[in-house]
Design goal:
By secondary structure, this protein is an alpha+beta fold. 43% of the residues lie in helices and 28% in strands.
């Protein structure tokens, strides 16, 4: 997401990512862009990746 303040990104995306208690979300701002990073711990990498992908698609 570019050219949107970090607080606006958070307020717009929090209703989505807060539904995923098992995924840690970090918002990073810098150089004219906002990045959302998702981290999930599951028994296998494939399970964790599926969960993060599910969230990222929303």
């Amino acid at each position: 997401m570019a050219l949107i303040p970090e607080s606006h990104v958070d307020s717009r995306t929090a209703p989505i990512y807060t539904q995923y208690a098992d995924v840690e979300t970090t918002i990073l701002a810098g150089s004219g862009e906002i990045q959302l990073h998702f981290l999930c711990a599951k028994p296998t990498l494939a399970e964790a990746q599926r969960r993060v992908d599910e969230l990222a698609e929303k």
